[in-house]
């Protein structure tokens, strides 16, 4: 059993119906006009769905793990679209509550040559009404991982209470608590978010944080500084974009794995893909270096695709790259001309 998983978890076989990962958070409907068309001039918009935690669950499901998404949606067409979209990725949705008294959250993109603006319509959303009872669902019993992000505590006072309850009271006995810092400046300013996110992260078991994000929040300049700031978690994973990622585990030397070269089509959702890959490696009992590799490989698929959820190649493709020698991994090129799913570029 991987050392990161809680030792008090039963070691017997898991029921086929039980869940391995419970991912908790809001997923919204997104409206986007055609590329290059300002929202005020658009006559049509494309409808899609996006949410950090459900993205992680979707990648885990694509990698063969039993993941469930835990949230609330409104009793409206957008809510039904969200649930259908998440379920289509192979994620269980039987722990999603339909709230007849609040709408499903919505965000709208406004393309502009100077940068795309995003307008959120999520205040008072159904998901913002999640509370400490959200994790009382008996269908979540036996989960090996509970995954949350720093988006949820920014949604409302009850959502903050839910996140604090998850990391402190551990309502899913035996589950490792995974926390992606995922600071959203549009939801709360740095001076308010920084102490709350630091406290929540330090009470978790596994933390994902971007190096630039940690610098903006806590003025920490490198992975070791982040680790000193967060002594509590068993593992802190610090991501440095196209450079690579470092895993800092208790009682072990830091492990750095460089990121492969990729062609970036759309950066949105790459962090969720990385977290999904890393957690899949954890569940499979991979060592820290291979967990980081799997995170990079799944993130590469997201970076090369449009939208929040990318299709993944067959597992043997990942397996061959996970087992590649270090001198073959370091120059790995996953750009469109550098590798295909049959030959791996090795």
UniProtKB/TrEMBL annotation:
Keyword annotations: Kinase, Transferase
Keyword field contains Transcription regulation: no
Domain Carbohydrate kinase PfkB span(s) in chain numbering: 21-313
Record GO terms (molecular function): kinase activity
ATP-binding in keyword set: no
Protein's recorded name: Sugar kinase
Residues passing through the membrane, by range: none
InterPro entries linked to this entry: Carb_kinase_PfkB-like, PfkB_dom, Ribokinase-like
Stretches of the chain forming a coiled coil according to its record: none
Pfam families, A to Z: PfkB
Family of this protein: Belongs to the carbohydrate kinase PfkB family.
